[in-house]
């Protein structure tokens, strides 16, 4: 009986810890025009590669100006909006070394930060093999959080895996657009 109770205690503790895991809740949209550029408060160049790009777990290395990060993401839910995300700052030198180990298809993009009420819309202008692709992302506190849709925000592509950065490394926009 003690073993069963102990096992239930461990299971409950495990389930509580799962609920506390960091999550990303994000929606993605095509961008109709470049109106966002005049509204942007910040602009930065990003380079990123993937040590693992399988849908169950992606491991990304990102250079963002003079900062660098390693990010682990879990599989997205059916709607494509929510998944586990863990990120840690690393040195630029470490990121450059890890980028050399990444799968082929490095992502190169310029990110614009556009204030939108209580949130910020991140607009990514892709370069290289994904030239011409403009994607807006907005992180939300919950899947059903309402937010203002500016006129330059186009069709929602949240659940379309073609627009996931990890997918764009293997199937660049120029090959299917």
Explain what you see:
The chain is α+β, with helices and mostly antiparallel strands and 177 residues long. It has 5 helices and 9 strands, in the order H-E-H-E-E-E-E-H-E-E-E-E-H-H. It has helices at 2-19, 36-39, 92-99, 165-170, 173-176, and strands spanning 23-31, 42-54, 57-64, 67-74, 82-90, 107-116, 119-126, 134-139, 153-156. It has an 8-stranded antiparallel β-barrel with strand order 1-5-4-3-2-6-7-8. The chain starts with a helix and ends with a helix. Mean pLDDT is 90; it is low at 10-19.
End-to-end separation in angstroms reads 62 Å
- What sequence of helices (H) and strands (E) makes up the elements? HEHEEEEHEEEEHH
Total DSSP E strands: 9
Count of alpha and pi helical runs: 5
Keywords:
5 helices, eight-stranded antiparallel beta barrel, 177 residues, globular, 9 strands, alpha+beta
Secondary structure layout plus pairing:
Elements: H1 2-19, E1 23-31, H2 36-39, E2 42-54, E3 57-64, E4 67-74, E5 82-90, H3 92-99, E6 107-116, E7 119-126, E8 134-139, E9 153-156, H4 165-170, H5 173-176
Antiparallel strand pairs: 1-5, 1-8, 1-9, 2-3, 2-6, 3-4, 4-5, 6-7, 7-8
Task: Put the structure in a nutshell.
The chain has 177 residues and is an alpha+beta fold.
């Amino acid at each position: 009986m003690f073993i069963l109770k102990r096992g239930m205690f461990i299971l409950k503790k495990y389930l509580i810890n799962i609920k506390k895991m960091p999550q990303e809740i994000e929606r993605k949209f095509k961008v109709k025009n470049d109106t966002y550029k005049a509204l942007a408060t910040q602009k930065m160049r990003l380079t990123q590669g993937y040590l693992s790009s399988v849908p169950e777990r992606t491991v990304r290395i990102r250079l963002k100006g003079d900062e660098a990060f390693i990010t682990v993401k879990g599989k997205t839910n059916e709607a494509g909006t929510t998944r586990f995300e863990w990120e840690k700052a690393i040195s630029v030198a470490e990121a450059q070394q890890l980028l050399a180990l990444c799968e082929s298809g490095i992502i190169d993009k310029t990110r614009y930060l556009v204030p939108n009420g209580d949130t910020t819309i991140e607009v990514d202008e892709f370069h290289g093999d994904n030239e011409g692709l403009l994607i807006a992302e907005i992180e939300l506190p919950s899947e059903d959080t309402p937010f203002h849709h500016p006129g330059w925000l186009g069709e929602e592509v949240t659940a379309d895996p073609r627009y996931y950065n990890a997918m764009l490394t293997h199937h660049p926009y120029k090959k299917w657009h």
